[in-house]
Design a protein that fits this description.
7 strands
Length: 165
C-alpha cells in the first residue's frame, strides 16, 4: 500500500517512516458469539513529532466489524521484536513540552513557535499570554528536547514533562 503524500497533521513535516505489512485481529460480538476478523494495513510514523497513524489496505473491511470492542496487533512469531531506540517511549506514554515563560523577547518566541509547530500567529501570541501552555505532546524525547532547545535559544523558559500521549 502506498502512504499518502501529505504533511503531518500534528507538526507539518513531510518525513515519514513506514512499516512493512501489519495485520490486526479485530474481535467483536455477533449473535453467534465472538467473531475475529483479520485486517491488513501499514503503520506510518512521523520522523519529526512521532505521530503514529494507521492506514488500512481495505478500509471498507471495517464494515464487517460494526461492534468491534477489542483490537490486537498480531506479530509474526518468527521475528524478534526490536527494542525501541534511545529516546523512544513505550506505547501510551511520552513527553509534553510546556512553555513556562516567553522571556525578554516574546516576538522571537512567537516566530520560533510558528516555525517549529503548525500554529497561526494568533495561537502563538495567545500561547505566550496564558502561561504555562502545553505546546505539544510526543512519544519521542529527542523531538521534545529539540523543540525545547530551539525555544530556549530565543529566550523562552520551557520544561519537558512526562505525559500520556
Amino acid at each position: 500500500m502506498t502512504t499518502p503524500v501529505r504533511t503531518c497533521r500534528c507538526c507539518g513535516s513531510d518525513h515519514f517512516v513506514e512499516t512493512g505489512p501489519v495485520e490486526w485481529a479485530v474481535r467483536h460480538q455477533s449473535p453467534d458469539g465472538a467473531v475475529e476478523v483479520a485486517l491488513a494495513g501499514t503503520l506510518v510514523i512521523c520522523v519529526r513529532c512521532g505521530l503514529l497513524e494507521t492506514f488500512m489496505d481495505h478500509p471498507l473491511d471495517l464494515t464487517a466489524v460494526p461492534e468491534a470492542h477489542e483490537v490486537h496487533v498480531t506479530a509474526d512469531p518468527g521475528t524478534d521484536r526490536e527494542t525501541l531506540p534511545t529516546g523512544e517511549s513505550p506505547a501510551g506514554s511520552g513527553w509534553q513540552v510546556v512553555l513556562v515563560h516567553a522571556g525578554e523577547r516574546p516576538i522571537g518566541v512567537i516566530a520560533a513557535l510558528r516555525k517549529e509547530l503548525p500554529m497561526s500567529f494568533v495561537t502563538a501570541r495567545a500561547s505566550i499570554s496564558r502561561l504555562p501552555w502545553v505546546l505539544t505532546r510526543t512519544s519521542n524525547r529527542r523531538v521534545a528536547d529539540a523543540l525545547s532547545e530551539k525555544l530556549a535559544a530565543v529566550g523562552a523558559v520551557v520544561r519537558i514533562e512526562p505525559s500520556s500521549v
